């Protein structure tokens, strides 16, 4: 199993019509951003937009 498989099994509490991105992808992006030095949600957002 890889990261996306494991976190894909989690329940997503968000409202269905407001989901723009899958939860496992958000978690993976957040993990990668933090590993690369992101220290805030703004840093994580900038990291995601730079991909």
Q: How would you describe what is shown here?
A:
The protein is mainly alpha-helical. The chain has a domain at 19-51. It is 53% helix and 0% strand. It contains three helices and no strands. Helix 2 (23-35) packs across helix 3 (41-49). It is globular. The model has no long low-confidence stretch (mean pLDDT 92).
Distance from N terminus to C terminus (CA atoms, Å) equals 24 Å
Oligomer: single chain
Q: Based on DSSP secondary structure assignment, what is the total number of beta strands? A: 0
Q: State the secondary-structure class.
A: mainly alpha
Unreliable stretches: none
What about the largest sheet?
A: none
Shape: globular
Helix segment count? 3
- Compute the average pLDDT: 92
Q: What string, H for helix and E for strand, traces the elements in order? A: HHH
What is the rounded Rg? Answer: 12 Å
Q: What proportion of the residues is helical, as a percent range? A: 40-55%
Q: Topology, pairings included?
A:
Blueprint: H1 3-7, H2 23-35, H3 41-49
Helix pairs in contact: 2-3
Concise overview:
Helices cover 53% and strands 0% of the residues.
Using brief descriptors, characterize the structure shown.
mainly alpha; 3 helices; 53% helix; globular; 51 residues
